[in-house]
Amino acid sequence: MSYQHILLTLDYSEHGDYVLQKGQVLAQVFSAKLSLVHVLDNIPMPQVAYGTIIPLTEQTDNALLEAEKTKFIQIADKLGIDEDSRWMVWGNPKQEITHIAEKENADLIIVGSHGRHGLALLLGSTANAVLHYAKCDVLAVRLQD
Description:
By secondary structure, the protein is an alpha/beta fold. Helix content is about 40%, strand content about 20%. The chain has helices at about 15-30, 65-80, 95-105, 120-125, 125-135; strands at about 5-10, 35-40, 50-55, 85-90, 110-115, 135-140. About 30% of the residues are buried.
């Protein structure tokens, strides 16, 4: 069985490029469509409800949001991802990643994982949450701290 549509998650961590490279290689191996999602959950968005897709082509007066959009677009362009396969969403990462995957018929989600233990594991991680909530396969790429 091969994958047809891979949804790659982006988190801007110091090891994020490693996850992106894995996604790009797997998309080539399977000749799969590659999509990219980034969930904003760490910047204030007072006028936006959770689950709102952020338009990448519209300018706002929110400097933090514009910086996030610029980074996201640069990475998506570098990976050669079509404009209609890019999503920046405000909300809960687990919910938004799995929602986009389901809505866009992705059959593999790729997410980075730090492999936390103890209290950090109990508090949860995006990778763990996506793994348990997704209706498709999830590849957690191990990141070294």
